[in-house]
Amino acid sequence: MSDRSDWPRHDFRRAVLAGLAYFAIVFAAGFALGAIRVVLLIPRIGETVAVLIELPVILTVAWIASRWLVTKFDVPRQSGPRLLMGGAAFLTLMCAELGLSMLAFGRTVVDHLDQYHTIHGLLGLAGQVMFGLFPLITAHFRRACPSGRRCSPPRAEYRHPRISRRRARDLAGAARA
């Protein structure tokens, strides 16, 4: 595992920004699903079963968002930037959840932490930990080629930290012409 001093500064910034975007997408989806869970599911089937129904849906959203954002923000495949992205998202999620618990439900910090001593609380926490690890886990999966075989990894190429890939292609095309 590489330490932060090995990363270019722009990789660090991209990983944190990707983590914040990742949090925002998944938190919005979780807020909507949580409202449905609390209003419709819990009164009918109980809290633990409702969380068991919600968990695969929100984890699917998180997986898709993680894969999309690491591509969109061009987060390197190394474990350090991916852990930073997931850690930033996880930390922000935990703070937002605590704030929402205190403001919307009038709980204290101790009351909020006591929620994790229940089965549904532990299931939710396990889902949140998975959410935080998804950017790292997705680094080990490659997209399948249209033919169904695994694509070979892209060739390594020099990248200037201040020139975008599109601009580098334009410059390379102009140099060839």
Helix-residue proportion: over 70%
Shape: elongated
Number of strands: 0
Biggest pleated sheet: none
Task: Write down the overall mean pLDDT.
Answer: 85
What key phrases describe this protein's structure?
177 residues
Descriptive overview:
With 177 residues, the protein is mainly α. The protein has one domain. The protein contains 6 helices and no strands. It has helices at 9-45, 47-72, 79-105, 109-114, 119-138, 165-176.
SSE arrangement:
Layout: H1 9-45, H2 47-72, H3 79-105, H4 109-114, H5 119-138, H6 165-176
Helix pairs in contact: 1-2, 1-3, 2-5, 3-5
Q: Could you give a quick summary of the protein structure above?
A:
By secondary structure, this protein is an all-alpha fold. The protein contains six helices and no strands.
